[in-house]
Amino acid sequence: MADKIQYHVFFLDVGQGEATLIVKRVIPDKGETKCYTMLVDTDSGETINPATLIKDCVPKIKRNGTEVYFIDSMLITHPHDDHIGGLNFFINDADICVGKIFHPDYDFPRSKETADYKAYKKLKKDSCNQTETRIIAGQDYGSDTGISFTTFSPPKTIENAEKFKNQSEKIQVHNQCSVIKVDLNGTKLLFLGDANQECAKRILKYYKEKIPSTILSASHHGSNSIFVPEIDIEENLSSIKRGDKDNSWDEEILDIIDPEYVIISCGKDNKYKHPHSAALEAYKEKKRNVKRTDIEGTIYFVVDDNGKYVVSYLKSYDSVKKTIKGLFPSTASTNESVKSFFVGGSSLPIPPRNA
Asked: Residue 239 pLDDT more than 80?
């Protein structure tokens, strides 16, 4: 009998930032379940610190003669504080080991001297204990770390180089942001990071037929910047109305992705006014399910081996910790909240539409 493969996806409530944990469970007919883990971005957050969560949930294993908390991989969409705000812990904490860290290749202004930027520079120089891989669009990665994904950005070379060099660092980084898709047994999950409209148009140009997805992690915490040209003062975008042609409003990227669920990671009453009302209106079109971490807490998907899924909401840190901890073989039997998802072979109710 073939192994059953199930995915557990946690869009963590980290406040005004982003971090998502994916746990892949391989369940053999006989023998022990094997778990693979992937963290997409790692803001340390106002409510959840991903590094602390890993220590609280993931069993220690022996690596190179030392017991460590191990996750198989991490993907950094782009190096801004609200996406790498916890990277320092993963790079410099000797108790944590990441099998491989995938990231776009960026250089920074010298003024970026926070602990997390220093950690990223250390990673880029390959001078830390973690293994790094620099990603480019049009490639598949992760076959050696247990959870595979396909990349649509950053490009191999910069287009419109003259225009690019005159943009601000913020807009440059969002233009070149990592955009990836993970196939969860036929249920497609697309991460846009903080991709802006220019990045979206490039993806449509080269990968239009590959981006339809069941679940969308919305760009830039629900900003209008995926639908209109990005500007430096983010909150000034919030007053733009949906369909405003004077501001070059364009929803083609959303129409092509055509998700069933849209997940917005944002903090309550944040200064950027995320999610912007026009973007929220667009996401809700076609009766899409739009869920926000500032309202729901941690948003939790379970995908069975047929690609059917259920979604639930974890309001407290303890409930997140208990659920994740219960997925690993050494503690799974103690967690009744997830036991029904992978014992007895029962089907989950929602089949993948974009298989």
From this structure: yes
CB atoms within 10 A of CB 161: 9
User: Which has the closest alpha carbon to 73: 53, 99, 95?
Assistant: 99
In angstroms, the CA 120 to CA 126 distance is 10
With cut-offs at 50, 70 and 90, classify the pLDDT of residue 115: confident
Cβ within 8 Å of residue 273, ≥6 positions away: 235, 238
User: ∠ CA 79-179-159 to the nearest 5 degrees?
Assistant: 85
- pLDDT band at 23; cut points 50, 70, 90: very high
Q: Spell out a b/e string for 267-298, using b for 16 or more CB atoms within 10 Å of the CB, else e.
A: beebebbbbbebbbebbeeeebebbbbbebbb
Q: Are 130 and 93 in contact (CB under 8 A)?
A: no
Question: What's the sign of the alpha-carbon dihedral 231, 234, 238, 239?
Answer: negative
Strand runs labelled E in 4-114: 4-11, 20-27, 34-40, 60-63, 66-75, 96-103
